[in-house]
Amino acid sequence: VLRCLIRNGFTQTVPFCSPIPGGLLEGMSITVCGRVFPDANRFHVDLQNAADVALHFNPRYNSGGYIVHNSRLNGVWGNEENKAPTPFPRGHLFTLQILITLSSYKISANGKPFSEFKHRMPLTHVDKICMAGMVRPSLIAFQYLEKVPYKSIIDGGLRSGKVIIIEGVINPDGMEIFLRHKTGIAFYYSPRFDENVVVCNSYEDGTWGDEEIYELMPIEIGQPLQVTIFCSHQGYEVFVNGEQTHTYSHRYTNLEEIDVLDIRGDVQLSFVQP
After folding, report:
1. How many structural domains compose the chain?
2. In sequence order, what DSSP letters do the residues of 9-44 get, joined into one string?
């Protein structure tokens, strides 16, 4: 069951601070979407407790553009951890995701793993997110997802242009994604680390079809993963961490009847858009 709180309407309210319902928990994911101003010099996203800052994520646009990671405890800033180039160009839309683990914040930018920042204060102390600078945020979402198996109805079934997004951390035993209809499986997608492949297939009339097998990369054990499945007229286009990796032609063409997303295996899910 996905429990999700989304806060919209921040386009005119920077700077702002928003409470994090229940505080941070292992496995929680925070997603921030918005647009950087064309003339931006910097902006920041902070995870805070009172005046303490557990994570200061600070894109800066001087010196070619880079990201500052830091923390502030008892009024004192710590050592900066910088990374270049910035993944958020001026004037562009962006998506920032922060996955909370027991040891660190795993940060993804526009669907791709970007950086990691080790905890300098207990994650359970963090109770708000603050944002300021030359940016126009459009969405903040806090997501918690219980363990797989995960199953959700796809409202209205599939159609050309439908996008399904799955985010989390995959573990050594891999995972399986099923797009189902009443009598079969229209699309089966399974990264398998023991064979170093991704297997795609369909199940109709009680029988599995011919497997389509692809190289596993760029999926990595223990790293943040985003799988995006785009349904087109011709088939399914699969993007992994923002890069198109696989295509699979429709074998079952009554798209509106494909109405169940089923995820199983050894994966910690942080966000699902069925």
Report:
1. 2
2. --TT--SEEEE-TT---TT-EEEEEEEE-TT--BEE
CA distances to 113, 263, 266, 271 from 147, rounded to whole Å, are 22, 10, 9, 12
* Cα–Cα dist 252/250, whole Å: 5
Specify whether 64 is located in the same domain as 197. no
Q: Which helix (H) or strand (E) holds 262?
A: strand 260-273
3-state secondary structure of 154: coil
133 — alpha (psi -120 to 50), left (phi > 0) or beta? left
Same domain flag for 140 and 8: yes
Return the structure tokens found at 151. Answer: 């199953």
Among the candidates 145, 178, 206, a domain finishes at 145
pLDDT tens profile 188-211: 999 998 888 999 999 999 999 999
**172 lies in the same domain as 121:** no
Number of H helices, E strands in the chain: 0, 23
- CA 207 remoteness from chain centre: 33
Spatial contact of 114 and 107, defined as CB atoms under 8 Å apart: yes
Contact 73, 142 (CB under 8 A): no
Query: pTM for the full model?
Result: 0.63
Task: Write the pLDDT tens digit of every residue in 40-62.
Answer: 999 999 999 989 999 999 999 99
How far apart, in whole angstroms, are the C-alpha atoms of residue 95 and residue 30? 10
DSSP secondary structure letter of residue 125: G
Judge whether residue 10 has pLDDT over 50.
no
Of 83, 113, 145, the residue that ends a domain is 145
Q: Are the CB atoms for 266 and 192 separated by under 8 Å?
A: no
Does 265 score more than 60 pLDDT? yes
Longest dimension (CA), the chain: 66
